[in-house]
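Hi F.,

I've been meaning to write this up properly since the lab meeting, where we talked about keeping a consistent format for the predictions we share between groups. The idea is simple: the sequence comes first, exactly as it goes in, then the structure tokens exactly as they come out, then a line or two of notes. No screenshots and no reformatting. I'm using this chain as the first example so we have something concrete to point to.
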Amino acid sequence: MIIIKNFFRIILTLILLTIIAQSKESDKINKNEWVISLEQYFLSLGNIEGSFTQIDQIGNITKGIFYSNGNGSLRFEYFSPSEMLIIVNKGIFAIKERRNSKINYYSLEDSPLSKLLSKDLSLESYHVNGLEIQGRIATLELRTKKNSERNSIFISADYPQPILRQWKIIDAQKKETTIFFSKIRTINPLLDNFFEIK
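Output, unedited:
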């Protein structure tokens, strides 16, 4: 009887392990499918707001709120003591360091940010340099030029169902800026003038 009981326990254990393994496998998708899902996720975001934490090249940490209208316009409002305001709109990156300071404008013509979070987004227009999956997070590197590390962006999102968590931007001067995203939610449509710096 003891031998029979042990035999059935072993069989039951093997069945349970098989079910768990199949469940985990069915939860996974291949890399190409995930990239397509990521693109569809970005295209479906529309008008959103969320929190962000930014770490710059030398380790300075700042926090704030960001907004996107789903048409490629972004607004980053930084919490005190920072007074910085950053807006991405119509291919232009505008930054205001202080409330009373002048506005500096930069072209996004060769930047991966130019069409990210817009209805014109197509990941085929980027050079996909690599996709790494670690547990429940996938990280994708997009470049504007295949053999250049400048003007590239690393996007980290949930796997297998993409939800934006982080991006790291390497600009034309090879400076790195990492932004962590959280509490992203859909909001009412934003007016065009909300994405202007005055």
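Notes:
Residues 47 and 69 are 4 Å apart (CA to CA).
The chain has one domain: 2-195.

If this format works for you, I'll send the rest the same way.

G.
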